[in-house]
Amino acid sequence: MESLRKRVNVELVNNERRMKKALAKPTCKNFTILNEDLVKVQFIPKKIIQNKLVYTGFVVLKLSKVLMYKFHYKHIQGQWR
């Protein structure tokens, strides 16, 4: 499942003035100098919109666990007693 919190925005900067401006932002996470004229700047997103159904996946996993427990204790252990 995709984690929206691990996403980053990337900007390629080739101007020194723009680079200083980008690095001064509070959302700046990291930068990498690619060559003498190009810098890659990573930003964390300002807003994270959770549009995936995380709760549905969680409930499906819990229900499958309950189903496996019932099968184990009623059928499998019942044969070995």
Please characterize this protein's 3D structure:
- This protein is of the alpha+beta class and 81 residues long.
- The chain has helices at residues 16-23, 54-79; strands spanning 9-13, 28-35, 38-43.
- Strands 1-3-2 form a three-stranded antiparallel β-sheet, with helices on one face.
- Strand 2 and strand 3 (38-43) form a beta hairpin.
- The longest helix has 26 residues, at 54-79.
- The two termini are 41 Å apart.
- The model has no long low-confidence stretch (mean pLDDT 88).
What topology does this entry show?
Blueprint: E1 9-13, H1 16-23, E2 28-35, E3 38-43, H2 54-79
Uncertain segments of ≥5 residues (pLDDT<50)?
Answer: none
Task: Estimate nothing, just give the exact number of structural domains.
Answer: 2
**Cα shape:** rod-shaped
Specify the helix fraction band: 40-55%
Task: Give the oligomer, counting copies of the same chain as homo and different chains as hetero.
Answer: single chain
Radius of gyration: 24 Å
The number of helical segments is 2
How does the major sheet shape up?
Answer: 3 strands, antiparallel
Helix and strand element order: EHEEH
Distance between the termini: 41 Å
SS class: alpha+beta
Query: Main sheet: which strands, in order across?
Result: 1-3-2
Global mean pLDDT: 88
Estimate the strand proportion: 15-25%
β-strand number: 3
What characteristics describe this protein?
81 residues
Provide a brief overview of the structure:
The protein has helices spanning 16-23, 54-79, and strands spanning 9-13, 28-35, 38-43. It has 81 residues and is α+β, with helices and mostly antiparallel strands.
